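Lab meeting prep.
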Amino acid sequence: MSALQVQPRPHSRIHWRTPITMVTLLAVLVGGAWWGWESLTESNAGPSCVDAKMANDRLTPKQVTVNVYNGGAKAGTASAISKVLTKSGFHVGKIANEPNGNKVTGVELRGTTTNGPEMNLVAGQVKGKLKAVADSRPDHSVDLVVGVGYPGLRDKPVQSIALPKDTTLCLPSIKPTQPIPSGQNPN
């Protein structure tokens, strides 16, 4: 028969790996929360519009940013309109379906004010009566929303809008779509 042997008592070892892992994960969590809060509260975005004195006291299409939205018109209408507006000199920002999913009858223009020069210039591109909506947007861009019954663009659109002498307008800051290679002047 075998004799029973006294088993050695296990040594009391402290397992450090688990607490170190937990402290490291907690530090990452706190650091991520701090970084997220700082990014949210301190925006480093540039100005949404820039005050500019109008040359020859006229507003031209190259100084206006237009977002074209389809609010119920035939599929592809917003894209077709944006191509024509780009050829006319407008800077086209977004081309999409109406952001809120609303359906529009005819054409709706949305901008900073209902009678701003940028709104009037875009209105001069479209046939028929428009519904103008002021939403006090800070960037002075214009949303052109086309819906059911869209009458089309004018054959002879408005080329520019006359402004009072020495007018200064807040124009959208237009950012290039492609990065500027280093060492090249963007102007």
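Slide two material, second protein:
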Amino acid sequence: MEALAQTAAAIAQIIDTDEYEVEEVLENWLEFLQQQKIASENHYSPYHSNFRDWLGRQQIKPSKKFP
């Protein structure tokens, strides 16, 4: 979970949003992600390439939280 918190902090900083919200999303998606340690850093990717492709085809509707 510490790795997840560090990842959430890094993502939150990049997209300039609340760290808690990012961590909540990652926790919900954790079962669909594969964790890999590269040079002592945790990296996450979709578990299967077909799932990644499906995500890429999805139309994302803007959220009230994010412009």
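Talking points for slide two:
The mean pLDDT is 79.
The CA atoms of residues 27 and 49 lie 20 Å apart.
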